[in-house]
Design brief:
- With 123 residues, this protein is an all-alpha fold.
- The protein is 53% helix and 0% strand.
- The protein contains six helices and no strands.
- Helix 2 crosses helix 6.
- The protein is globular.
Length: 123
């Protein structure tokens, strides 16, 4: 086997190893077991409650002035989203809504904590 063939084989084995790790261990960016919903609540209250309300149900004082209204984060539709989907919404925002991008606003661990807090919300 020539040198190029060896590198192709090594690259392919590396890709298989990474894919297997993701399948077995979950999302690689999620801090497995290190989420802190209490820290996430503090961040939520500082950054999110002005639109989503103190309980996450989209019932803030500002909500009537936002079109469309803020999402109810405790609703089944939100709670059924994966952590990766919630992460994307937080980081990229929602076009056509008041949900702005929060890219750069949180450290990775803080983002994990906010998502953990969102998971604790109940309808």
């Amino acid at each position: 086997m020539n040198r190029a063939g060896q590198w192709t084989t090594i690259s392919m084995h590396g890709a298989i190893l990474i894919a297997t790790s993701v399948l077995l261990m979950g999302e690689p960016w999620a801090a497995q077991g290190n989420d802190n919903s209490e820290a996430g609540k503090k961040l939520y209250l500082e950054s999110c409650q002005s639109c989503h309300g103190p309980t996450g149900k989209g019932d803030s004082a500002m909500a009537p002035y936002l079109t469309p209204p803020p999402a109810n984060l405790a609703a089944k539709a939100t709670q059924e989203k994966t952590d990766a989907q919630l992460r994307t919404i937080i980081l990229e925002g929602r076009p056509g809504t008041a949900m702005a991008s929060f890219d750069g606003a949180f450290e990775e661990a803080q983002l994990t904590d906010v998502i953990a807090y969102l998971r604790s919300l109940t309808p």
